[in-house]
Amino acid sequence: MGYSVFIDGAAGTTGLEIRDRLQGRSEFHLVVLDDAQRKDPDARRDALNSSDFAILCLPDEAAIDAVSLIDPASHTRVIDASSAHRVADGWTYGFPELVGRDQVANAKRISNPGCYPTGFLALISPLVRNGLLPADWPFTCNAVSGFSGGGKPLIERFNEELDLAYRTYGLALDHKHRPEMQKYAGLKHEVLFAPSVVPAFRGMLVEVPLHLGAMSTNPHADSLRDALRLHYASSPVVTVNEGAAQAELTLNSDPDPWDGVELFVFANADSGNARLVARLDNLGKGASGAAVQSLNLMAGLDETTGLRLPKK
Ligand SMILES: NC(=O)C1=CN([C@@H]2O[C@H](COP(=O)(O)OP(=O)(O)OC[C@H]3O[C@@H](n4cnc5c(N)ncnc54)[C@H](OP(=O)(O)O)[C@@H]3O)[C@@H](O)[C@H]2O)C=CC1
Ligand SMILES: CC(=O)N[C@@H](CCC(=O)OP(=O)(O)O)C(=O)O
């Protein structure tokens, strides 16, 4: 029968994609509440406390509420896809490539990284940790996302406003992803984050422009690329590409689900400037793929089981 997995919020965008990845797998059986019960606190409390794993695919407030419904003595292990617990004590950040596979495998409470932080941290965290980039640098991050990143409300808006071609937001410079970006990259300053959305269903490009020549560490772009390659050498999920061969990076409007991350380092030797870019699926490694990767590790399985990755 396998482990029982309750998806709280299974009718939402992230929940449906997790269901897709777990459907038909013998290691797990899914507990899903029907439409009449899916918001009923008693039904949810029962499911939350009786399952081996609970995956929360809810808005932040509902995720906090779900955790409060779990008896602390219950054996249930939690993966929260929301941003409610990303920098909270007692939670493990569900980014095995950065925090370690064992930490994720042994955790009782996992907070799934945000989609934009997944791209930013995949690029920056290893390079700050190994001293190639200074921790006190004032990092900026520009990003563009598919509209499924905003869940059902944004999907509805993009489906209705057919004229919407581009939307930049977070203009109050208060985006909720800033704390996790700063904490897990080990930065002295908050990241200046400029997110935007385009009329593509899924997919994102997350970019960090860098004046390498102005840094105290004065790193060469090749050493950044080499260091990322080394860091992700054993990862089946994160790959590092040659920047030089590429003239452009594109997103398609309705691509297939994908659980990988591609990293690029573009540079100009004359100016000493570089653009570090991550391409990923906000619903893949940015949300549902990451949750399933952590679930696999917690269940003692190969981390890529059921993930949407190209065959090697
Ligand atoms: N979409 C993405 O790319 C990413 C999403 N996330 C995070 O994952 C979480 C889920 O996001 P997403 O799936 O996109 O959002 P959606 O809006 O698509 O889905 C949320 C689901 O939660 C349900 N819900 C809301 N309140 C309750 C409640 N009190 N009890 C039970 N169910 C409830 C909603 O019900 P109803 O259907 O009735 O509205 C909906 O089905 C969010 O915290 C989001 O920030 C994280 C990374 C990326
Ligand atoms: C396009 C879009 O709206 N994206 C969402 C982030 C999606 C994500 O990572 O979700 P969390 O809420 O779990 O952090 C936003 O900017 O709020």
Q: Give the assembly state of these chains.
A: single chain
Our count of helices gives: 10
Q: Which second-level CATH architecture of the largest domain applies? A: 2-Layer Sandwich
Q: CATH topology of the largest domain, what is it called?
A: Dihydrodipicolinate Reductase, domain 2
How much beta, percentage-wise?
15-25%
C-alpha-based Rg, rounded? 19 Å
- What is the highest CATH level, the class of the largest domain? Alpha Beta
SS content category: alpha/beta
* Largest sheet descriptor: 7 strands, mixed
Keywords: Amino-acid biosynthesis, Arginine biosynthesis, ATP-binding, Cytoplasm, NADP, Nucleotide-binding, Oxidoreductase
Active site: 115
InterPro entries: AGPR, AGPR_AS, AGPR_dimerisation_dom, AGPR_type-2, NAD(P)-bd_dom_sf, Protein_kinase_ATP_BS, Semialdehyde_DH_NAD-bd
Family: Belongs to the NAGSA dehydrogenase family. Type 2 subfamily.
Q: How would you describe this protein?
A:
This protein has 312 residues and is of the alpha/beta class. The chain contains 10 helices and 13 strands. The protein has a 7-stranded mixed beta sheet with strand order 8-9-7-10-13-12-11. Helix 6 (115-129) runs parallel beside helix 8. The longest helix is centred in the middle third of the chain and has 15 residues, at 115-129. The protein binds NADPH dihydro-nicotinamide-adenine-dinucleotide phosphate (NDP) and N-acetyl-L-glutamyl 5-phosphate. NADPH dihydro-nicotinamide-adenine-dinucleotide phosphate is lined by residues 9, 11-15, 38-39, 57-60, 62, 81-83, 114-115, 148-149, 151-152, 282-283, 286-287.
